[in-house]
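Researcher: I need the complex structure. Ligand is zinc ion. Inputs:
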Amino acid sequence: MGLFSKKECDVCKKKMVLMEGYKCADGTICNDCKKKMSPLFTDYKNTPIEKIKEHLVYREANKSRVKAFVAAETFGEYPKVMVDRKHNWFIVTKATKLSDENPDVFDLSDIQNVLVEIEENKRELHFTNKKGKTCSYKPARYEFAYQFKVNIKRIIHSSK
Ligand SMILES: [Zn+2]
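Model: Output:
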């Protein structure tokens, strides 16, 4: 195979342009196929083509779930967690337009555990006096910032 011969995507058979493509366990996938994969699917390098094909079939099915998704509640902003009470689904996404991102739609029943970590950051506030000196308030004043990390653990029911 010459250096400039065009390679084709092992998933969709599209001819790839030079420098295009992502190496996976036993082949190469084109940029279009990579884009269709879930943002949560990060370990494509160790995944065989067959598994990526299966994943893309699931991603197509996910599109119709995204279309049917009705957010009854939305928590947070970036990312946000959206809950569909009718279907008992949830989404975790940073996207503003769901149809563009096609975020994975999970079943609420998949949730096994939710861990919340809270990090507190305390900072003392100061003021500058008439002589230009930085002084502490008496009593001291503080500013608090809280960062919440929510870890949603889910189990996947699979027939395989
Ligand atoms: Zn492709």
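Model: Summary of the prediction. The chain has a mean pLDDT of 88.
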